[in-house]
Amino acid sequence: MIKDPNLKPILKWVGGKRQLLHEIIPLIPNDVTTYVEPFVGGGAVLFEYQPQRAIINDLNEELINVYRVIKEHPEELIDILTQHKVNHNKEYFYKIRGLDRDDNFFEKYSDVERAARTIYLNKTCYNGLYRVNSKGQFNTPYGRYKNPKIVDDITIYAMSNYFNFNDIKIMNEDYKKALTNLRKGAFVYFDPPYLPISESSSFTSYTEDGFTYEQQVELKEQCDKLNNRGIKFLLSNSYHPAILELYKDYKIKVIKAKRAINSNAEKRGEINEVLVYNYG
What we know:
Layout: H1 21-24, E1 34-37, H2 44-49, E2 53-57, H3 61-72, H4 74-87, H5 90-97, H6 105-108, H7 111-124, H8 153-165, E3 167-171, E4 186-190, H9 213-228, E5 232-238, H10 241-246, E6 251-258, E7 270-277
Parallel strand pairs: 1-2, 1-4, 2-3, 4-5
Antiparallel strand pairs: 5-7, 6-7
Helix pairs in contact: 3-7, 3-8, 4-7
């Protein structure tokens, strides 16, 4: 399959892997029959690798709604994004951001309207940080960008074509559901919410529920199950003593990553992360 150079993430997402593609893509085995990504997020690895058969999943309902709308209604989505672009200013941003304060948000607005809202806010909010509060309400403030790319029609059409002309299953479930009934030849790339290096470095609020240490342990047990079934996996996580201990029986590669999301620019330097895998 010839790769589409226009296929890339439409959303900036916490923990996005664009800067680490040179480390991750070469580690993907050559014999993959089904690519599985249970925490797909912005999809940087998916859209770079471009498998013809894939299962992608994320617990974030608004994120998965964006992907489904791009697949099924790209023209309608672009029309609404164009309206957002015309109306865009600080006051309008807060008006659109505030829509999910309405208890009937999901009943009042169509899937396409919600997807356009998510993309618009992502392109215009501060630092492109998708973040919700404990009630699931988007709460990132306005970003002062001179010319944000609100309507990225080239990427939307490229993504829509990719979803429609390949066998891509899009799920909005607990990540473990994406692991059921996998056969040998499947390859799983895990990019879960990282175990925070410090209390202040936790960015798990892009879903209403955080990702606890107990869930990290549960994830490692899922990796063990895959390994016992002969299924290859690759996992990204923070360079943390607890992670190193959890995965000590697997191969661990330490890599450098730039901390892109931090309110203090001086704290956006390189940090260590790990890639864990069971093959090669």
